[in-house]
Specification:
Order of helices and strands: EEEEHEEEHEHEHEH
Number of strands: 10
Bound molecules: hypoxanthine
Strand content: 15-25%
Largest sheet: 10 strands, mixed
Radius of gyration: 17 Å
C-alpha cells in the first residue's frame, strides 16, 4: 500500500478524497496526525501530515518513529515523502520539483532509529541494526514517480542531493556554502531520520521535493515563510496533480 507523508503546504490533508480517518497510537507515541485513508487513481493509500493538521509541529519535534511505525503497522510498503526545500545549486530554482537521489544528514539529537532496545516489539534486529543505506531512496519508487511526472507533463529534476539540517531556524550563508561544497543541491529539515527509519522497517521510500526558496545567501531577499507560502501555492498543485495520476507502485 502507498503511504504519503505530506509536508509544508500539505497540512490540509483532506484535499485528497478521504474515505476514512483513523487516529492511531504506537509504542513510540502518537504520530503527527491521524491517518487518512484515500484512493489515489485506484491505489489505496494512507496520507499522514508530517507537521500535523493543528498547531505546526516543528521539524526537530516531529515524532518520526511514530509516523513511520504507524504507516508500517497499517500495511504501507511504499512511502512518498513530500518536502519543501530551499534550492542551493543552480538548477534548483524556486517552483521546481525534484526527486533527490541522495541525502547528507546534518541533524542531531533526533530519535533516529528503531534499533535502540527501548521498545520491545517485533522488529527483527538482524545484522545488529546496521541497515544498508548507500542509496537511501528506492529506485523503483523513484522510477514510478518519474513516469508519473512524465505522463502528467510535469518537469521534474530527476536527481539531487538533499542536505538535511536541524532547524527550526534557516541556515547561515556560510552553512549553505559548506553544504554546496559537500555536494548538496537542496536543503530541508525533515528527510532524516524519516528515510532511514523507513529503511529500517524495510519500506520503500522516495522524496518528492518542491523547491520553495533560494537557500540562505543565494538571493538578495531574506527567506520568509510568507515568500515560501506564495511559491507553495503554485507548487503544491503540481504535486497534487501528479499524485492523483499516480499509477501502481509495483
Ligand atoms: N532551509 C531549510 N529547510 C527549508 C528551506 C531552507 O531554505 N526551505 C524550505 N525548507
Amino acid at each position: 500500500m502507498l503511504g504519503i507523508i505530506g509536508g509544508t503546504g500539505f497540512e490540509s490533508v483532506p484535499k485528497f478524497e478521504i474515505t476514512r480517518k483513523q487516529a492511531v497510537d504506537t509504542p513510540y507515541g502518537k504520530p503527527s496526525s491521524a491517518l487518512y485513508y484515500a484512493t489515489l487513481n485506484g491505489n489505496p493509500s494512507i496520507v499522514l501530515s508530517r507537521h500535523g493538521t493543528g498547531p505546526r509541529i516543528m521539524p526537530h519535534q516531529i515524532n518520526y518513529r511514530a509516523n513511520i511505525y504507524a504507516l508500517h503497522d497499517q500495511g504501507v510498503t511504499d512511502v512518498i515523502a513530500i518536502a519543501a526545500v530551499g534550492g542551493i545549486t543552480r538548477r534548483f530554482i524556486s517552483g521546481s520539483l525534484s526527486l533527490p537521489d541522495q541525502i547528507i544528514d546534518y541533524t542531531w539529537g533526533r530519535e533516529h532509529t528503531f534499533f535502540d532496545n527501548t521498545v520491545n516489539f517485533n522488529i527483527p534486529t538482524k545484522d545488529l541494526g546496521h541497515v544498508e543505506f548507500a542509496y537511501p531512496y528506492d529506485l523503483h519508487l523513484r522510477e514510478s514517480i518519474l513516469k508519473c511526472a512524465k505522463n502528467a507533463g510535469q518537469p521534474i529534476i530527476d536527481h539531487g542531493v538533499y542536505g538535511v539540517t536541524q532547524g527550526p531556524r534557516f541556515e547561515t550563508a556560510a552553512e549553505i556554502d559548506r553544504m554546496d561544497r559537500d555536494g548538496a543541491d537542496m536543503v530541508g529539515m525533515t528527510a532524516m531520520p524519516e528515510a532511514a527509519l523507513a529503511r529500517e522497517l524495510g519500506m520503500s521510500y522516495a522524496t518528492l521535493a518542491m523547491v520553495v526558496n533560494p537557500a540562505a545567501g543565494r538571493s538578495n531577499e531574506a527567506i520568509s515563510m510568507a515568500g515560501i507560502r506564495q511559491i507553495l501555492e503554485k507548487t503544491t498543485n503540481k504535486v497534487y496533480q501528479m499524485l492523483l495520476a499516480f499509477h501502481s507502485i509495483r
